[in-house]
Amino acid sequence: QVQLVQSGAEVKRPGASVTVSCKASGYTFINYYMHWVRQAPGQGLEWMGIINPSNGRSTYAQNFQDRVTMTRDTSTSTVYMELSSLRSEDTAMYYCARDMSGYEIAYWGQGTLVTVSS
Amino acid sequence: QSALTQPPSASGSPGQSVTISCTGTSSDVGGYNYVSWYRQHPGKAPKLMIYDVTKRPSGVPDRFSGSKSGNTASLTVSGLQAEDEATYYCTSYAGSNHYVFGTGTEVTVL
Lengths: 118, 110
What we know:
The complex is a heterodimer of chains A (118) and B (110). Chain A is built from no helices and eleven strands. Chain A has strands spanning 3-6, 10-12, 18-25, 34-39, 45-51, 58-60, 68-73, 78-83, 92-98, 107-108, 112-116. In chain A, the strands form two sheets. In chain A, strands 2, 4, 5, 6, 9, 10 and 11 form a seven-stranded mixed sheet that branches. A four-stranded antiparallel sheet of chain A has the order 1-3-8-7, with no helix packed on it. In chain B, strands 1, 3, 4, 7, 8 and 9 form a six-stranded mixed sheet that branches. With 110 residues, chain B is mainly β. The chains are: A mainly beta (118), B mainly beta (110). Chain A binds chain B through residues 35, 37, 44-47, 50, 59, 61-62, 95, 100, 102-106, 108-111, and chain B through 1, 3, 32, 34, 36, 38, 40, 45-46, 48, 51-52, 57, 87, 89, 91, 93, 96-104.
């Protein structure tokens, strides 16, 4: 079965960077795009971007264009999301998520809580 | 890319129906038949309920249905049950590998 296991919670200072990992299993890693979605406390879902694990190419939402980098390691079936220049508004749960067969998000990681605080 | 517009809240009694709208533009909802709906309970990851406007993933009851007209998509939950009390989000493909989520609708089962 499809499993997405994310790295543990992080606490960062404003201005720092954070990297969240997402290890995939139960399917052929390079065959499915991976999304990153975040949710601030008490707020809605926000799409951050998507990476094609086959070739490593990423597309980022305009809101994150200058601060986010998504990468992958095919040898470990892991994708990474790095967010830089953190500010308090970046405090949120970050999810990696995979599509089912097309333009939907069907499988979600357990989420990684990133707290930005001085 | 602006978030898709959903009503903040909706409600219905057990057994009744509730319909949630999701309004975008011709660049997202109106331009593609790739609208999905998710149900999220507090503290849990979202669950896919509808995809490609009208399709239900395996295991989702037929009480959930989706539709679209122009730039507005809709989710209808029939035969409301206590477990349907949650926040519902729509999302749409917006071209060039971009996606956009809706603002979310909190559904209360009275």
